[in-house]
Amino acid sequence: MAYIEFKGVVKRFGDNTVLDHIDFGVEKGDLVTLLGPSGCGKSTLLRCLSGLESVTEGRIVLDGRDITDVPASKRNIGMVFQQYSLFPNMTVEQNVAFGLRMKKVPAEKIQQKVADAIAMVELTGKEKAYPASLSGGQQQRAALARSIVTEPSVLLLDEPLSAIDAKLRKALQSRIREINQELGLTSIFVTHDQDEAMVMSDVIQLFHDGRIEQAGSPVDVYTKPVSEFAASFIGSYNQLDAAVFSEVTGAMVPAGHVVAIRPETIGIQKEAPAHTDGAYVVRGTVQDSTPRGNVLRYTVKTGPACLRVDVLFRSFHMFDKGDEVYLVLPEHDCLAIPESNAA
Amino acid sequence: MSSKAKAASAAPAQKTPLAARIFLGACALYLLVPFLTTLVYSLFVEWTDVLPSGFTLRNYAELFTNSTFWLSIGRTLVLCLVSVAITIVLLLLAMYVVVAVNRRLGRFMQFVCMIPYALQGVILSIGIISLYTGTGTILSNRMFMLFGAYTILVLPYIYQGIRNALNAIDANMLIQAAEMLGCGRFRAYVQVVLPNIVSGILVSSLLAESIVFGDFVLANNIAGTNYQNIQVFLQANMARSSGLSSAIVVIIFVVVAAVTAIVLKLQRSSQNR
Known about the structure:
The structure holds two protein chains of two kinds. By secondary structure, chain A is of the alpha+beta class. Chain A is built from nine helices and 18 strands. Chain A folds into two domains: about 5-230, Rossmann fold; about 235-340, CATH 2.40.50.100. Chain A has helices spanning about 40-50, 90-100, 105-120, 135-150, 165-185, 195-200, 220-225, 230-235, 240-250, and strands spanning about 5-15, 15-25, 30-35, 55-60, 65, 75-80, 155-160, 185-190, 205-210, 210-215, 240, 255-260, 265-270, 280-290, 295-300, 305-310, 325-330, 335-340. In chain A, the strands form four sheets. Chain A has a six-stranded mixed sheet with strand order 6-7-8-3-9-10, with helices on both faces. In chain A, strands 13-17-14-15-16 form a five-stranded antiparallel sheet. In chain A, strand 15 and strand 16 (about 305-310) form a beta hairpin. In chain A, helix 2 (about 90-100) crosses helix 3. The two termini of chain A are about 35 Å apart. Chain B is an all-alpha fold. A two-stranded antiparallel ribbon of chain B has the order 1-2. Chain B is globular and about 70 Å long. The chains are: A alpha+beta, B mainly alpha. The interface of A and B includes residues 76, 88, 89 and 150 of A.
């Protein structure tokens, strides 16, 4: 039995079904990410687990105990909110101590635990600072310290890094992951950023329209999308209709399927390759090239299709617009996935 | 950054343009003219030429030795404090329900709290008198009628202040954050939300206090000379001497200014915390 179990959880707001029979489990100590676009229900599920939102149908079990009807304040679940939600009238120290005071922890223990938690999030020296005088990153770390200091059964993180600049976000992603592992905390992280989900998670639950579209390890979800939606949301898969793929490569694809190809699996070269075993080779014309950090993305027109091709961005420009090139598509990276109208 | 550079970058923020200062000074002078004129009028025997003549403190001496005057000042302050306090307590409780229990009630609260804007003082006072006089309850007491009337009168002003303060801090989110730390909702409202809206409450109570202090219609209609407030006292003495009336107006201004200063000081200290 999993540490946390969602059993047929349904949440409706009036006629709008936000969560549609959610069933999955979370193992103790795992960091699970609920990933999906805005409005897909991931934050609602988190709030149902926290107790801030009631469920319409279904049960939620935590460590063998049914907590579906337990008030939020009695669940011993920590939560970090997107907007930090630090108490403005309290210092960092007082904010972090708040949960311990609610639990009636002796004053001398509170002092030690607060100091440890503040040190863990690297905010030592800011104990007496009020939230208004802290940067966004510092406020979020203070909120994290406040949530972990009470030693919750589960730590919930509701898009905690979305309001933080990119550089600091990467640093905080690592710190959250480290803290999760140091404390052995079971954590559920909500994000719409697939890169963030890849970096942080043990398991990703990909949400779409109130349902779980796909679940698995970051590598599995990234390399083996099970639907058009998963392929379009995770990575920047090229998706070709069966007919178009057949026209481009000459290979046959079962009806009702599309072919998804990750841009970084496609080889691009000036000359035709000598060996083409296990790969489709197609000719194309470079339409565009866009630097994306350490990756250079080409858009190559080949027959009726336009394919995105990612290569490492080296110090020289390999191909110019209008160049004729050969694309090498490894067969095992051309994934036939069921077509859906929802994508 | 060098100290010189720091000073240079700080300078534009500190210096108010000359035109702005002249404009502000002119506005302040314009607003102060009626008060200064009244003050001068209260300090002289007559003012029939360009300059007044016959400096005297007689009006103030008469007022300060008049127990009725002090009682009316005291009654007005009590009316202010009690009615504003009742309104604040009632609204804070009602807003707890709106913020933490059922947010959809917010629109209803807003509608109810805006109704007093549409009530004329005469209508309100006559309504209260006809409803409660002779009922034999505590509410038939004229003083309690006044407390009730002022509670209604200041309701919209204090509601707006409290609602804006609650919105500014996202009270619902703070309550949820406190809940996740093991705190009950009402306790979170008291321990987390209220300390953060003190400033808003003080500002709105200041506005309410000046409204109650300046009211004549309700006090005169409901209580008259039975429970004479400062405005009714002023009205009663207007016919006796214009110098004395001016002195009363000056004292009202000073008392209101003193109360305002105290409230603003409290607000600043709450913001500093």
